[in-house]
Amino acid sequence: MQERRRFEGPSDLHLHSTRSDGTEPPQMVVQAAHDHGLRTIALTDHDTTDGWAEAAEASASLGMTFIPGMELSAAHGWRNVHVLAYLIDPDDAELRAETERIREDRVGRAERIVANISRDYDLQWEDVLAQTSAGATVGRPHIADALVARGFVRDRGEAFAGILHPREGYFVPHDAPDPWTAVRLVVAAGGVPIIAHPATSGRDRMMPLGVMAELVELGLAGFEIDHRENTEAGKRTLRELARRHDLIVTGSSDYHGRGKPNLPGENTTSDAMVARILERGTGSAPVYP
Ligand code: AMP
Ligand code: FE
Ligand code: FE
Ligand code: ZN
Q1: Distance (Å) from CA 254 to ligand 2 centroid
Q2: Which residue owns the Cα nearest ligand 1 atom 5?
Q3: Which ligand is nearest to the CA of 258?
């Protein structure tokens, strides 16, 4: 390995931009990461690789290492499952087709949620469009921003705790591949699949350990354990599972700009684990400064 090909920590491998539901464009996300002392980052927008070029360029100009990533939406029954996909080939035909399908379905789904909300609140689809960057992966956060703009809630957190919560009856799920398909697609695209925030509560609750074991057989590389939404009990269980199967464990912020309180670098991934991700990914290459 050449000297200049070494990355340096601290590393935060889970950040979102306006290409999905973050509030800052990729360049600003990278600047925020830099301001928080990070040296290696991954951009992991939901179901899109659109922000890579801009983030890679900004990283290089700030002397940081950029690792290409994506957060692929999946579903296990009623559960949301998010699969972080590092170093995938952005042109892999199957993965591209699947992410395009997900992004398209997310639009119709968001329109249905807005139609439901509009029965009780003065909210139009145009309000959501006004909060969404062109081409971005649409999600409930954009509806939340529209509700904030209309003055119905103070921030995204309040929207998710109230109007956007499934118990309120406006919620519609979006279509997504099952976790077995998601892991297979990422592996086939040369990527390193790691389950994002695998041990949260609510609709993101942890999948049964038997399913996790099956995913490991298919090439699941590891778990994002240090994440503010994982429960302590869940972290312990997954750390033990990771130890037994010699899996990668990561820690990250899941930064969404002003959309969440999460700050770059609030959790980080060790150099040893970043090195394992870099060794394993073959679909695209990190960009060194
Ligand atoms: P969706 O995939 O459209 O159902 O929206 C889920 C997204 O909303 C996740 O990617 C989170 O980033 C975001 N999200 C979930 N809960 C909250 C919250 N309480 N505050 C802000 N953003 C949230
Ligand atoms: Fe998000
Ligand atoms: Fe997520
Ligand atoms: Zn995320």
Answers
A1: 8
A2: 140
A3: 1
pLDDT tens by residue, 90-126? 999 999 999 999 999 999 999 999 999 999 999 999 9
Going by CA atoms, what residue is nearest to atom 4 of ligand 1? Answer: 140
Taking the domains of the chain in order of start, what are their residue ranges? 2-99+175-280, 104-168
**Do 226 and 258 contact (CB within 8 A), yes or no?**
no
Of 56, 84, 59, 81, residue with least CA distance to 70: 84
pTM of the model: 0.97
Atom of ligand 1 nearest to the CA of 16: 12
What dotted CATH number matches 104-168?
1.10.150.650
Backbone angles phi, psi at 178, to 5 degrees: -70, 160
pLDDT, tens digit (0-9, with 9 covering 90-100), for 3-56: 457 899 999 999 999 999 999 999 999 999 999 999 999 999 999 999 999 999
Which ligand minimizes its atom distance to the CA of 69? 4
Q: Hey, is 249 helix, strand or coil?
A: strand
